[in-house]
């Protein structure tokens, strides 16, 4: 089922791929067509005082309904209001796809907020950036819709990679609040019961799955119902990170693919898909039809499954579903070389200040307040997101579960290329993951899938 026909509820965070799938040609054309209008409105706002933005003693921001993040922002806003006497108006729309896309588009076009948020990265940019292959965020950043943050004192608190992820032509336009990791959450009590150790290689992982299955325990749980093939990313991103990324020219697989220095038919990519197929036999029966929302409080949370393929954004919901859950984390190990098996990470909720925000000064002050050690730690602990700051001590459930992997991993911007709607069918972002599922279900061989990707690739 195509994601642009869905309305996902907000209690679990949909993936970046799911987020991008929503941008069909129609949506993209709307965004491009709106850009000219937005620029004109921005100019008018600059000259005439803006439209709908708070101004004075009101600060307006928008975000999507991700309950842990919204809860954290409301708490932070209340503390900001108390300190500065400024009312913060938080506007939300249900789910990062659909309703929030509409709200964000309208907000940027009309300058009706001071701070907006999104989870789409700026990088990697398409090889040949133009209006037909850029996402709205890329269009807005590269056309000056957001105010640069260069020179703001709070930027010194963030890692170079977090700042670089939102930097274009030397100007940083977004503040990345943190990143999420993907991989395996495991039940420590079940592992102890069957004397299992955290696997560090692919063969060890398969052995763990076999042992659990032999004892009548469901080894792995994940759910694709209502999301479709995009959630196969919990496997294919890891496979690329472990098998292909370590061999990438210049240490950047995304750039190597976009510049045709490596091909989709690379043996490492083929091997990853073959291993995905083997792992799939240990997934929950009928996983393609089980509602994706069960991952935040279903069989894994209740102890009926030993492991879950998921993203760390679900940790607050898992903890809420079962506060006694003893969970741990490890990245899916695809390589026989333990040191090559790394976590995959992706930047998430990013703050942008509109160029013609009516209360830009106070918006920058809010970002400074958010970035202070006590407030930022509060945000990380409540949301389960990994820190994008250089220092800090974090004690939330997410940090406890992630352990040594907290904030570690191969970032998506260095591993996965920007896919254009001008590519062939299976190298368009909306359709890319379909082949992964075809391989996992035995409907296509890894070699056939790799050849199809390469045939449709235009770079």
Task: Give the secondary structure arrangement, pairings included.
Blueprint: H1 16-21, H2 25-48, E1 58-64, H3 67-84, E2 87-93, H4 99-110, E3 115-118, H5 136-142, H6 160-164, E4 167-168, E5 171-172, E6 175-176, E7 178-187, H7 188-193, H8 202-214, E8 218-221, H9 233-244, H10 253-258, H11 267-280, E9 305-311, H12 315-321, E10 327-330, E11 344-347, E12 350-353, H13 360-371, H14 373-383, E13 386-387, H15 397-402, E14 410-411, H16 432-440, H17 446-456
Parallel strand pairs: 1-2, 8-9, 11-14
Antiparallel strand pairs: 3-12, 4-5, 6-12, 7-9, 7-10, 7-11, 7-13
Q: What structural category do the secondary elements indicate?
A: alpha+beta
Question: What is the CATH topology assignment of the largest domain?
Answer: D-Maltodextrin-Binding Protein, domain 2
CATH C-level class of the largest domain:
Alpha Beta
| Count of discrete alpha- or pi-helical segments spanning 4 or more residues | 17
Strand runs, count: 14
What is the arithmetic mean of pLDDT? 87
User: How many discrete structural domains?
Assistant: 2
Residue share in helix: 25-40%
Q: Strand percentage, roughly?
A: 5-15%
**Name given to the CATH homologous superfamily of the largest domain:** Periplasmic binding protein-like II
**Roughly how many Å apart are the termini?**
27 Å
Radius of gyration: 22 Å
Strand count, sense and closure of the main sheet?
A: 7 strands, mixed
Overall, the morphology is globular
Using the 3D structure, state the CATH architecture of the largest domain.
3-Layer(aba) Sandwich
Ranges where pLDDT stays below 50 over 5 or more residues in a row are 1-54
